[in-house]
């Protein structure tokens, strides 16, 4: 569904922002520190979790941790609000009814790419795992519930392990919960990878297609069978007790990527190709979600592309069945979008962000 309106109050550098939106891509430009990424962060909070910066609600308040903030949006027929009153946790309402954050994942499908993700292929496995789970959530909204159930059971199991509890009866129920949720997590991840691969295969694009695989890490973390996971957890209790934590399961999985006729690993590719691979995945993610009309957030991506690839990216964006928001330091980075997009200039004045819309 289309995002028709966005309103911010006391969020990051914005004392107030009201944007009327339509289906065209929106290019947000202005100098570093003006508040462009803060708009994308606010949009990312229309999905479950901590948004594209992974920040706590207290960090997002313009007037400091003792203040609050509010984001309102009109998504199709629904009025959505997420807010953090002073000293309280973040709340969500849809059509004035309080709902858990996971309900946002069923309402809108958000995808984002930020400069921090440029290190995805060379960072630690947990970075790629978080990326994969965000992609998976765009396809399977219930993935968030499975992840929460798995993490809760694993924390309890880890507590028993640290306390050197040896009675198997204490572990059985927790390991059963981990196994059921863990199998669902792995199946959903595999489904997401398959859909991304299919979307890449059917597209003509200037960006290289990546071959993706769910790597097991340690302990067969790519196992989609609940009974097999439960047996492994029971068999590894002694080793896990020595370590004080669970060493096997989907929380140890990794995402592998390669490309080209030589199957070049993404981690060994040039910086430019690594960026191009990321963009390819984001575009494929959006294409695979065509029926849901996803919201795609691209933070400062144009600056890292040469003129030909920038033009190709803009052509692909305008052809996508998605609502796209982009940021960049100068309007010239979006010159090939003239006549096909809306533009917003962001300025910083007296410590606050201000927007000037160009239709």
Please mark out the parts with pLDDT under 50 across 5 or more consecutive residues, or reply none. none
Strand order of the largest sheet: 2-1-4-5-6-7
CATH fold topology of the largest domain: Rossmann fold
Distance between the termini: 22 Å
- Please state the CA-atom Rg, rounded to the nearest Å: 22 Å
Q: What's the shape?
A: globular
Give the DSSP E fraction (strand runs of 2 or more residues): 15-25%
Number of helices: 10
> Which structural class matches the secondary elements?
alpha/beta
Give the SSE string: EEEHHEEEEHEHHHEHHEEHEHEEE
Largest sheet features: 6 strands, antiparallel
Calculate the mean pLDDT score and round it.
93
Q: How much helicity do the residues have?
A: 25-40%
Compute the number of strand runs. Answer: 15
Total number of distinct structural domains: 2
Say which CATH homologous superfamily of the largest domain is assigned.
P-loop containing nucleotide triphosphate hydrolases
CATH architecture verdict of the largest domain: 3-Layer(aba) Sandwich
Properties at a glance:
single chain, 359 residues, alpha/beta, Rossmann fold, Glutathione S-transferase Yfyf (Class Pi), Chain A, domain 2, 2 domains, six-stranded antiparallel beta sheet, six-stranded mixed beta sheet, 10 helices, globular
């Amino acid at each position: 569904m289309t995002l028709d309106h966005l309103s911010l109050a006391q969020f990051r550098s914005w004392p107030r922002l009201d944007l009327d939106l339509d289906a065209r891509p929106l290019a947000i430009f202005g100098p570093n520190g003006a508040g462009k990424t803060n708009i994308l962060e606010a949009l990312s909070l229309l999905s479950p979790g901590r948004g594209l910066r992974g920040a706590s609600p207290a960090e997002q308040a313009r007037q400091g941790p003792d203040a609050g903030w509010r984001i309102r949006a009109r998504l199709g027929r629904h009025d959505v609000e997420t807010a953090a009153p002073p000293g309280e946790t973040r709340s969500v309402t849809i059509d004035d009814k309080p709902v858990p954050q996971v309900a946002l994942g069923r309402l809108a499908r958000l995808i984002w790419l930020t400069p921090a993700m440029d290190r995805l292929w060379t960072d630690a496995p947990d970075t790629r795992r978080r990326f994969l789970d965000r992609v998976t959530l765009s396809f399977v909204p219930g993935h968030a519930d499975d992840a929460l159930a798995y993490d809760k059971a694993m924390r309890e199991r880890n507590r028993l392990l640290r306390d050197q509890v040896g009675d198997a009866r204490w572990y059985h129920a927790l390991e059963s919960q981990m196994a059921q949720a863990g199998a669902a997590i792995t199946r959903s991840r595999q489904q997401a990878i398959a859909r991304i691969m299919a979307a890449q295969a059917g597209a003509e694009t200037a960006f290289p297609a990546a071959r993706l695989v769910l790597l097991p890490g340690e302990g067969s973390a790519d196992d989609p069978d609940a009974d097999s996971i439960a047996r492994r957890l029971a068999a590894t209790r002694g080793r896990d007790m020595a370590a004080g934590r669970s060493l096997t399961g989907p929380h140890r999985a990794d995402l592998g990527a390669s490309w080209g006729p030589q199957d070049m690993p993404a981690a060994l590719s040039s910086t430019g190709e690594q960026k191009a691979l990321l963009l390819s995945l984001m575009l494929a993610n959006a294409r695979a979600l065509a029926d849901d009309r996803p919201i795609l957030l691209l933070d400062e991506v144009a600056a890292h592309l040469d003129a030909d690839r920038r033009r190709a990216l803009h052509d692909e964006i305008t052809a996508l069945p998605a609502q796209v928001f982009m940021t960049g330091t100068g309007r010239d980075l979006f010159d090939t979008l003239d006549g096909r997009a809306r533009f917003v200039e962001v300025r910083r004045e007296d410590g606050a962000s201000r927007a000037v819309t160009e239709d």
